[in-house]
């Protein structure tokens, strides 16, 4: 890991931007990206915290955009009923100016994992500038705060992720499960009649 930091740190903010894009484009098994930014700052405190947050947020947003776009390819494997349900959610969020921006902001500014959120966006075929605006703003806020207090929280978090890698696997598995559950809900029925029903995945019908 130290070698990776050395390589990217040679390119200053451009290197940090590149590594944030790569980390956020991956759907699974990636560490919290604020830890990456805080590690760069700990290694070289001449970095400006605000600029580091802005660069990191831009890289994270581009990475999530890439994740969303290739996640959309898996939409073809969903049945017509499931796609119709996902389209219903998309229309509901798009119909309110604050729908996508607020949702993305909350996931970006809090510890909630945003990787599966953008996988869900991809499955929904969401196309809304508010997705990225909200996410970028949320990341700026969270990155700035976490880098600012990194002297206190960085070492405990690094120890947590080094000693309990299984925890990351469990968290990612839970995230995948949530997306599968989300995609299996009959959203048309739930939103129109307030009745909860699940659509069985195709593989269960074989």
Overview of the molecule:
With 206 residues, this protein is mostly helical. The chain has one domain (2-205). The chain is 74% helix and 0% strand. The chain contains eleven helices and no strands. It has helices spanning 2-9, 12-25, 33-43, 49-71, 80-94, 99-109, 115-124, 129-148, 150-163, 165-184, 187-193. Helix 4 (49-71) crosses helix 7 (115-124). The chain is elongated and about 55 Å long.
Helix count, DSSP H or I runs of 4 or more residues = 11
| Strand coverage percent | under 5%
Q: What's the β-strand tally?
A: 0
Q: Categorize the overall geometry.
A: elongated
Tell me, rounded to a whole number, the average pLDDT: 80
Please, what is the oligomeric state? single chain
Structure classification: mainly alpha
| Total count of domains | 1
**Topology as a string of helices (H) and strands (E):** HHHHHHHHHHH
Helix content: over 70%
Low-confidence stretches are none
Could you tell me how far the N terminus lies from the C terminus, measured between alpha carbons in angstroms? 44 Å
Radius of gyration: 18 Å
Characterize the biggest β-sheet: none
Task: Give a short summary of the structure.
This protein is mostly helical and 206 residues long. The chain has helices at residues 2-9, 12-25, 33-43, 49-71, 80-94, 99-109, 115-124, 129-148, 150-163, 165-184, 187-193. The chain has one domain.
Q: How do the helices and strands line up, and which of them pair or pack?
A:
Elements: H1 2-9, H2 12-25, H3 33-43, H4 49-71, H5 80-94, H6 99-109, H7 115-124, H8 129-148, H9 150-163, H10 165-184, H11 187-193
